[in-house]
Specification:
The chain is mainly beta. The chain has 3 helices and 8 strands. The protein has one domain: Roll (3-methyladenine DNA Glycosylase, Chain A), CATH 3.10.300. The protein binds a DNA duplex (13 and 13 nucleotides) through strand 3, strand 4 and helix 3.
Amino acid sequence: MGLRQEFFDRPVLEVARDLLGCELVVDGRARVRIVEVEAYGGEDDPASHAGRGPTPRSRLMFGPPGFAYVYLIYGVHHCLNFVTGPDATAGAVLVRAAEPLSGVVPRPGLALEQTCAGPGRLCRALGVDLAWNGVPVAEDLPGPDRLRLETGRTPRRITASPRIGIRLAVHRLWRFHDRESSGLSRR
DNA sequence: GAACCGATTGCCT
DNA sequence: GGCAATCGGTTCG
C-alpha cells in the first residue's frame, strides 16, 4: 500500500518507527526495504538542521510533510530524509540503511547486502543527489513520482539508540533499526 | 567575503 | 585506529 501525506503528518518519532520495513521505490526501477532511520526535530532539537530556526537549507523541513529533503554532507555524500509533521513545524526522518530487494546495481568489492548500508551508500546506490531535494514522496501529492514508499514486512524487533555522528542531545534515543537486519550501517 | 564545519565513507598505516 | 576528500551552508567580522 502506498504511503499518503497523512502518514507523514504525525510526530517525527512515530513516522520514523513506522518507516522501518517500508519499501522505497526509485523511478519504478530500484526497490529497497528500509531497516534503519533517525528522527530529527525542529527548534527543540539542537542536533537538527532545523535546530536554530529556518535557513535556506533547512527551509524544506519547515514545510508540509511528505517531501524529500536531500543535502550534501562533507562535500562528498548525499543524505535522504522525509519531511514530517504539519506545515510550519520542522521535522524529518533520515534514511540510514536499507536492504536491496530488486534493481540495485551491485558495487565491486561490496556485498549486495551492504550496498545501501549507510546514508551515503544508500543515496549513491539509488542515484539520489541534490536534484532530488523537494520531490514529493507521498502518493497523493502532485508532481513527479520518482520516490515512492509502500508498506512492507514489519520488523519483528526494533531497537532504539543514540543518533550516529551526533554530539548533541546524545540522551535522545532517536535512531531506530530492525534488529534482525543484516543491512545496517552499524550494529 | 572569509573562515569554519559537517546527520560520511573508504583507503591508509 | 587515523585521516583525507570536497563543497554548500552557516556564522562571523
